[in-house]
Amino acid sequence: MHDASAVGPARPLEPGVALALEPGLYIPDDRARFGPFAGLGVRLEDDVVVAPGGAPPAVLSAAAPIEMDDVEHAVGQAASGGGGAQQQQQQQQAQQQRRRV
Length: 101
Description:
This protein has helices at residues 4-7, 31-34, 68-80, 85-100, and strands spanning 18-21, 24-26, 41-43, 46-49, 58-59. By secondary structure, the chain is α+β, with helices and mostly antiparallel strands.
């Protein structure tokens, strides 16, 4: 958790508080032990908002691409300056469909 000293472990999360959940995997940069995976790092981040009454949090990043093909496509679109609103909506619908399976 970033800036943990400003929040502290004794402070409860309150409705409306936004935070990032960032599980990650980082492989040491040691080719002898890890071969081609040496130095690889992956972090999956979700941004969430605490909901009132113990309800599930709102996941602000739910529509973000998570499948490799979707991420590569999004990066390509951003690099080329393309990707209109309709195309983005279609991509989000496809991603949500895959998550339900």
